[in-house]
Amino acid sequence: MTLPRRWQRTTGSRRCTAEPLWSARRTATLSESSRATRGRMMTATDVAEYLGKPKSWVYNEWKFVGIPFKRIGNQLRCRQVDLDRWFDEQAA
Known about the structure:
CATH topology of the domain at 39-91: Multidrug-efflux Transporter Regulator, Chain: A, Domain 2
Number of strands: 5
Mean pLDDT: 75
Strand order of the largest sheet: 3-5-4
Number of helices: 5
CATH architecture of the domain at 39-91: Orthogonal Bundle
């Protein structure tokens, strides 16, 4: 298989013809079970809907109440399993 020129890297006199990581073949090999075990990443809007609170409450209170967000760039993301664990701890 010949790759487009922009994907080919030169290493000395040999060319690397490996597929890029985002190729269709790479994403097709991920099984549904591996996606489920990694956990779905939720946005602040998803968390607000899940908790039944306004989105403004989530943004204003996430540090104070301890919602387990991680910053990815300038966005807040949270795994659903981490959110469920946090919610269960709040009820105890």
